[in-house]
Amino acid sequence: MGYRDINQNLAEIGVKEVAGECFFSPALVDYYNMVEMPSKKAMVIIPTYNEKETIEHLVRAILILHPDFYITVVDDNSPDGTGEIAAQMAQTYPHIHVIHRAQKSGLGTAYVAGFKYALAAGADYIFEMDADFSHDPASLADIFQPIDEYDLVLGSRYLNGVRVEGWRFRRLLLSKFANIYASYVMVLPIWDFTGGFRCYRREVLESIQLDRISSDGYAFQIEMLYYACRNGFHVKEVPIMFRERAHGYSKISRHVVREAFWLVLRFHAPMREIFNHLRYLSQDYDDFVASHPVTQKRPARGL
Question: What CATH number is associated with residue 170?
Answer without folding.
Answer: 3.90.550.10
